[in-house]
Amino acid sequence: MKKKTLQISTFIFFLSLVLAACTARVEIPSNATHAPVFESTPSLALDPIVTETPAPGNDAPIPFPTNIRIEDNIEYQIPFMLGFDAIRPVYAPIFAPANVAPLLDDELVMGLVIDGEAKAYPVTVLRFREMVNDEIAGWPVLVSW
Predict the structure, then answer these.
(1) Which residues 6+ apart lie within 8 Å of 107 measured at CB?
(2) Range of the structural domain that residue 122 is part of
(3) pLDDT of 120 strictly over 90
(4) Which pLDDT tens digit goes with each residue over 12-34?
(5) How far apart are CA 113 and CA 118, in angstroms?
(6) Residue pair 103/79 in contact by the 8 Å Cβ criterion
(7) Which residues contact 68 (CB under 8 A, 6 or more apart)?
């Protein structure tokens, strides 16, 4: 368990290093009295500049680029075949050894192996229940179809 925690912590550490290395650095001069000014690109016709109130002690307005909202007066009809939470997940799955399981030899299953413990979830069951909350090798898992 400690080994998995160490692996996850190491992964998160290196991921944060990669993200930090890929982000742009913005230099703000030490004598700056207000936020940086963003200039619009002439080729972007939909990037207006909105003048905000000036920073304290500065009479010049500070332009900030903003997003444009497009009015959409269309009323969308989204059909629902089932109500909210109509398909209940499997909370306490029951497993059988492979040699006595009531499955065909070519039946499609979703398999999961963690720390040497293996489980198979038949797609024929997942088609109707869609989710299985389970635990494998001490790790909580959600199998979804």
Answers:
(1) 122, 123, 124
(2) 87-145
(3) yes
(4) 776 676 666 666 565 656 665 55
(5) 4
(6) no
(7) 46, 48
